[in-house]
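Entry 14: structure prediction run for DUF7872 domain-containing protein. Input pasted below.
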Amino acid sequence: MHGTLVLFYLLTLSNLFPKALSTEFQDTWSGLIVSSAFYAQTLPPPPPSPSKSAVENRKELEPYTCEKQKLDPETWKKLKINEYLKNYPKGDKLSLRAFAAENLAENFICGLEETCNAGQLCAPVVGRAWYVLFAAQQFNEYQMSLYNAIGIVGTMAQSAGAELVLQLFEPKLKKKATLLHKVSQLLTLCGAIVSVLLLAPLLFVPGLDAFVAVAIVSAAYATVQVGSVMASGQAQERAEKENAFMNWAIYSKIIADWKDKFQMSIGNEINSRIKKGVSDDNGIYGIISTAAFSSNELRTDTHDLEKKYRPILIIRLISQMLRAQKAFVTRGSDPCNKKGFNGAFPLEDGWLSYCDEKKMMFNIIRAEGSKSHNHLYNAKAIVQNYGLSVEYLTQQAYRCKLANIDGQFDHDPFERGQKLRDSDTPCLFNLPVCDCTIPEVSKHRKQAGTVGACRQAGQIPI
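Run finished. Output tokens:
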């Protein structure tokens, strides 16, 4: 631009006063014109004017200092933290710790057993960098809480199972025994509890799609759950060759392995995220970009964990232990005119029997060979020690049969990701149900007995 103006002035003067210039001066003048023309041609073109949107975007991403903002996903979006982090200089190479150090947080160290703390805004970290570190701190606390919760869930399953072995199996039992119908179904329940724990802290964060956030957070653990369930099948084959108490020792180890692998995967996940570049999708960005950890409303308290989930584990374990003993539910096998409540068989005599308001009887009995055994060992412990009514047990099983969710008698409600709610989660307690009111079953009972009729006419696997 400047070269063009000089050239213009020189040409104008030479045209206006050609005769006033001496020959020597004209030669010099001509040289200046040529030089100016060359200068004009070699200057780089001026940069284009920035667009309005680019200017606005740059202004929005300019660092601010200490203006406090509400800690929630809306603020995260308004401040464009994702854009800030994605475009952070060398962000694809800079670890979380290095990023923190660049922003004056020298002792910001995340990981298992670490308590990385972003402190208060501008003490000393300012602006968007503080929001990044705060979200990383929240993620670290969330993972630590999950790590501890998995330990509690695993220990609960082990202790509850050991307790039930003593309650529901005769002490003199020495022969080989199957304690759990499918130990894998216990692990899927443990996994379902963990899923609840993953989701619960995020449900009440305003403006957040908690399910999307959990899907991202839990992706790293899915293979651990699947691998543990598959390995449990091989261990179960070994366990069934042992007596009841050696059997439980093997099951207990399966649960311990599940717990250890799950916890290890959490440690690996944290370490992997914090060591990769802060703007890498596989680094901390891939987690905090959901804005799931931008809120200080996150609550990851495991204080009431055992109180809340131990009863659910107990129900599932009892279901599995009864199923392993070839227990099943009969409907309408007898009239409701017995000595127990509402005409059912009495609990004191070893029955698990219930009559509904329509005088339909439901019993939990056991098949041994071709014979039925109506009395279950220590049956009253299920009701008296664990507060589970026979109504609850039989009606859970019957509703599961009516739903016929996947056409299987051994439907596992958690195998395909069904959400665990509470003790009324469908099919939590699940035994095969033989409906003795069906004419074909009733006819066969007269000749083959209850077990034979339920196997042949009822087609139930006992």
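Notes: Residues 326-456 form one domain. Will compare against the previous run tomorrow.
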